[in-house]
Amino acid sequence: MLYTQTVKIPADRRIVIDLPNEIPAGEVTLTFSSAPADRKKAEARDLELINLHAESLNREMAEMLSFM
Fold this sequence. Notes:
The chain contains two helices and no strands. The chain has helices at 39-52, 54-66.
């Protein structure tokens, strides 16, 4: 599952992340990057990430749907 949230980093470099209930407890990988200057670049980056993880995202979705 890919969850994207844009936040402002304060001077003390401390942030708190509240995740939706749909994200299961357990190990995750956090990736931080600077926000792109324009929206088209952000959309292109998001699409690239989705394509990169498409197989695992599809597998995860199929697993979720099997519980319904």
